[in-house]
Predict the 3D structure of the following.
Amino acid sequence: METHEFKNVEPFGLMIDLTTGQMPGATNHLVRRASDMKGHYADAAALDRLIAAGDPVHYEVFEYPVPEQDGHLMYCISKLLPGLVGEEFWMTKGHYHSVAETAEIYLCLQGKGYMIMKLNDGRCDAQPMERGRMIYVPPHWAHRSINTGSEPLVSFCVYPAHAGHNYGDIVTEGFPQRVFRRNGREVIA
Ligand code: F6R
Ligand code: ZN
């Protein structure tokens, strides 16, 4: 019979730079480049041009992980760089949590943008992100961050360690709202 053994860790603390999000000692480093974003932007040709022009890093996630078990809290720094794909601001892929009944807290440390959230009944919400603003992503809501500024959009994220990531319908359906720069202005459409 399979037994479920709870793994614990010793108490610990670490320093986080509250502007850059730099977290020395982070052992997991996820990097997503423009080429990892195929299917996500409205202007696919503009994304192809960006990939051909050097395939820049889009965003990075730094983690110092804890066991991925119910009872622990995972935390990380999400750093989304500024840029445009055609008229659309750079963004993360976005995801649901695999364990849907899990929430997440984002505390924005630097930059500006939006957290776009959607529920599978069609509801959508766009919460502004700026330094010092906390966003609560409730259970069941898919979430994507979008950088509308000129510096990195950096957030400290905390969520149940067993939540997992489900990219599910995000590539096929996307989110009901996108954020563009048109005639020098930010437009949510
Ligand atoms: C974790 C979480 C963030 C994102 C990160 C990258 O649950 O929401 O750490 O994972 O901002 O975004 P995705 O995972 O959508 O590529
Ligand atoms: Zn999440």
